[in-house]
Design goal:
Layout (H helix, E strand, L loop, with lengths): L2 H12 L3 H8 L10 E3 L16 E3 L9 H25 L7 E3 L7 H11 L3 E4 L4 H13 L5 H8 L2 E7 L3 H23 L4
Parallel strand pairs: 3-4
Antiparallel strand pairs: 1-2, 4-5
Helix pairs in contact: 1-3, 3-4, 3-7, 4-7, 5-6
């Protein structure tokens, strides 16, 4: 629920266009120097936090956190929220070898790389910008008996290989540790009625 909500909110705070947001995020190393942004500005479904709120954590007086740190932490927080869902799938025995991404974020090389690093598998965008509509068409065609979802997806889903990003294993490890911290911080705040 909060992927583009949180990044658009931060972009608005600093008056940046999309290109400037990406430039700013790229001035800060993965991990955002310990700054974390719990991205629950609109509550959340995964994890189940219908009344959740956003939290910026890790600002210290002896560091020089900048708007770029907040932006990177917001993008990482939203992406790690998706990685949390993927971690839940993995616990159920579902481990993808590649993830297909769609939406406005696919235009950002930074977000695509961050996603590959956070998920630990390659990501690639669709050739169409209307991924949700395409999914609806596939479901409707399957319900109409025109093939299984898998058969229809094989035929109709086309990839844009120019958007492919491969994970950097060092950054993947860093993001797994940051996801552990994000989950723990979320849990502690939720248990104490602070989220």
């Amino acid at each position: 629920m909060n992927v583009t909500v949180v990044t658009e909110q931060v972009r608005g705070w600093f008056g940046w266009d999309h290109a400037e947001m990406e430039r700013q995020v790229n001035t800060v190393a993965p991990g955002a120097d310990g700054v974390s942004f719990l991205p629950y500005l609109n509550g959340e479904r995964t994890p189940n936090l219908p009344n959740g709120s956003g939290v910026i954590h890790g600002l210290q007086g002896n560091t020089s956190a900048t708007p770029a740190h907040i932006a990177r932490a917001a993008m990482e927080g939203a992406t790690l929220g998706l990685a949390y869902g993927l971690r839940r799938f993995s616990a159920l025995g579902l481990d993808p070898s590649e993830i297909r991404i769609t939406g406005g974020g696919t235009k950002s090389a930074t977000w695509r790389q961050m996603s590959a690093d956070a998920f630990g598998v390659p990501v690639v965008g669709l050739a169409t910008s209307e991924g949700a509509s395409l999914g609806g068409v596939i479901q409707a065609a399957a319900a109409d008996g025109q093939g299984t979802c898998e058969e229809l997806a094989q035929r109709l889903v086309k990839l844009d290989d120019s958007t492919r990003a491969e994970p950097n294993q060092e950054v993947t490890q860093l993001y797994q540790e940051k996801l552990d911290r994000q989950e723990k911080l979320t849990s502690v705040l939720q248990e104490n009625g602070l989220l």
